[in-house]
Design goal:
Number of strands: 9
GO molecular function, one term: ATP binding
Protein name: Adenylate kinase active site lid domain-containing protein
Bound molecules: BIS(adenosine)-5'-pentaphosphate, magnesium ion
Strand order of the largest sheet: 2-3-1-4-7
Structural class: alpha/beta
Shape: globular
Helix content: 40-55%
Largest sheet: 5 strands, parallel
Order of helices and strands: HEHEHHHEHEHEEHHEHHEEH
Strand content: 15-25%
Family: Belongs to the adenylate kinase family.
CATH topology of the largest domain: Rossmann fold
Organism: Adineta steineri
CATH class of the largest domain: Alpha Beta
Keywords: Kinase, Nucleotide-binding, Transferase
């Protein structure tokens, strides 16, 4: 994760050979080929930042974390926009789409992104997803894979409340799962580690709520475009990493990606209902058709977080099997 003071697009200095060698050392099977366009979707603490550092190094692509870019923008104490961004982040809500999109637009043109990009925590709404699609189309680019880091909310509290960051470098530690060698000190520089100001129980609850309400619809959005795969993010860091590589490489092996047309997309979830109406006045029959949605319509905002997790998992399996 990049620091607010550092740029969030990373310049790669390590050669691919060196990196492949380092992967062997930690027992991760090396994969071939660089360059990919990846989206990471997942709740706070699911490991997006942790994995995106590694994945962007592996594929030699830029890492764009909208969280990091916004934290950087929020540091501008003199502007109203900086203040609004800060307040929204502290409250666990989502920053306005137009601010986020302009950050993406600006950063995507950087030379570090010429070999591909990894979006960490972007898009977060259907609107952002649609705007990204148009932006990429205008640049004649496309996404290769959308990885969802799925994990029950209960496990996230420990991860978030135990997180320690080294702001200057973006290095992330965890009191319990990945402690620094010396308490509260960065392993490399010895500088003091900090906590993120939104890593409190109260803001975490708001962030989780925002994720379930506004971001999870994106999973269906990308499933319909044949780009989505879910990974169990409660596994060890290396296991999540290994599976992420396998999935991205599988998607990249597909000869060509073609998004579903609107008709195909609707056909995959809808059938037509036909009704016949008789008009006694002029003795004519009118045949009417209307699309029916064979997806289960549920107002997910009324579900508890735990039940919502189960609901999303079950509907994902049913959809994958073509049952709904
Ligand atoms: P952002 O910075 O993206 O925060 P987030 O989505 O809440 O995610 P986190 O960064 O907290 O978690 P992570 O998934 O990166 O986990 P990490 O790898 O650090 O966004 C912040 C805010 O900015 C948002 O709330 C919103 O206001 C705004 N924003 C951002 N993007 C936006 C957008 N597109 N539109 C509108 N607003 C936007 O891991 C967490 C901890 O767990 C670490 O300590 C790590 O060491 C540990 N850990 C990681 N993986 C494992 C593992 N497998 N096992 C054990 N521990 C692990
Ligand atoms: Mg992060």
């Amino acid at each position: 994760m990049a620091s607010p003071s550092a740029s969030s697009t990373k310049t790669k200095t390590e050669s691919n050979e060196q990196y492949q060698a380092s992967l062997k050392n930690i027992g991760v099977k090396p994969q071939s080929g660089t360059g990919a366009n990846i989206v990471l979707v997942g709740p706070p603490g699911s490991g997006k930042g942790t994995q995106s550092n590694r994945l962007s190094e592996h594929y030699k692509i830029c890492q764009l974390s909208t969280g990091d870019l916004l934290r950087q923008a929020a540091q501008d104490k003199s502007s109203d926009e900086g203040k609004r961004i800060r307040q929204t982040m502290e409250a666990g809500g989502l920053v306005d789409d137009h601010i986020v999109m302009s950050l993406i637009d600006k950063n995507l043109t950087k030379p570090e992104c010429s070999n591909g990009f990894l979006f960490d925590g972007f898009p977060r709404t259907i609107n952002q997803g649609e705007q990204l699609e148009r932006l990429l189309e205008s640049k004649q680019k496309r996404l290769d894979a959308v990885l969802e880091y799925a994990i029950p909310d209960e496990l996230l509290k420990r991860r978030i409340l135990g997180r320690l960051i080294h702001k200057q470098s973006g290095r992330t530690y965890h009191e319990e799962f990945n402690p620094p060698k010396e308490s509260m000190k960065d392993d490399v520089t010895g500088e003091t580690l900090e906590r993120r100001s939104d890593d409190t129980t109260e803001t975490l609850n708001a962030r989780l709520n925002t994720y379930h309400k506004q971001t999870t619809p994106l999973i269906d959005f990308y499933r319909k475009r044949n780009l989505h795969k879910s990974i169990d993010a409660s596994q060890k860091v290396n296991d999540v990493y290994q599976q992420s590589l396998e999935i991205v490489d599988d998607f990249r092996k597909q000869p060509s990606y073609k998004p579903l047309s609107v008709d195909e997309e609707q056909g995959s979830v809808r059938q037509m209902e036909t009704s016949v109406e008789r008009n006694d006045f002029d003795e004519t029959l009118t045949i009417k058709t209307k699309p029916i949605n064979n997806q289960i319509e549920v107002d997910t905002s009324s579900l508890s977080k735990n039940f919502l997790f189960v609901y999303n998992s079950v509907t994902a399996v049913l959809r994958d099997r073509g049952i709904i």
